[in-house]
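User: Structure please.
Assistant: Input sequence and predicted structure:
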Amino acid sequence: MTERFRVIDLFAGAGGLTQGWHNAAVSESVDTHLTAAVEFDRFAASTYGANFGQEATFALPIESWLESAGEIGADVILGGPPCQGFSALGKRDIDDPRNTLWRAYAETIVRANPTYFIIENVPPFLKSVEFESLKTTTEPGGLLADYRLEPFVVTSADYGAFQNRRRAVVIGSHKYVDPVGLPATTHHDRWLTVREAFEGIPERSVGYELPDRSTQAGLPGPFRTDELHFGRNYSDLSLKRFAHIPKGGNRHDLPDDLLANCWRGNRRGASDVMGRLHWDRPSVTIRTEFFKPEKGRFLHPEQPRAITHFEAARLQGFPDDFMWVGKKTDIARQIGNAVPVQLGEALSRHIIKHALGRATASTAIRTVPVDAVLTPNPALFEIGDLEPSIR
């Protein structure tokens, strides 16, 4: 008899975690029933529905969905509450209302009574006041007193992702099952590379626009991932800059006459700005504005352009036939905000194996000292903080 898991995806985005779950479910020969997927952004929700089914996709704030959902149930809940209030790339505003959306996640856990749940976020979340509050809910008398939390910081490349993206992962499980732990790394000694991610993609982009196509709701799309290999119409100044940046280079390789004024005043730091990706390394973290070279190391390893949406989606692990809905910036936001599919797959497979009693010593807990990994290695994680406009 085939096992069947009921799954809820909260703050679902385009569905990186769900794609990872489905990949794992297929590999472990189990069925999935998607109880609900909740996503506030209508473009992301439309993308999710185009790939995983519209009938269980709710384009609503999670609070509104909880008010109208009625009786819900799940074996597993997946989700990544918004991270902007915790991200090192943002203002780290402790009063950002998005920081407290984990409370709605906790309410969903109480109502759905899953055996397992996964919370994904940025590493600083684990040192936040909000995470401390979440932990108190698992104490006797708390909202989640029947559950335990196991927090980790992981590097996506260790699990077969094409990018060196570090994430906080909290695995929750009901106390009537054994602790889950973190899956053993699969690629710790051999990270996959940009070259491998781009295999089969033409080096030259095609055109500047999306195909002329609309959904029944009148939104742009849907578009296959492999239809997103379009470029930007760069200015002559930008093209001159790109031509001066060698393989692996960045803004520091530009001659003085091509420097932006803000760069002339600071010849140190921000070495990812206008940087080229390295062919034989994983990419840096793919952000929502990966199409802007002034935002980070997002230039193609050789070509005079930023990476395309197609290439960014490949670096996030999405399949070429994945469907996207929205304008160019909407799709870029969905790609940048997604959980790398391979990380989602590794976590999901670990949960499935634990639930079915298939976990072995090779998937036992791997202790990761959180304090040790919250400080990035500057050689690997460089943030572009000097951003002139570029066209």
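The chain has twelve helices and nine strands.
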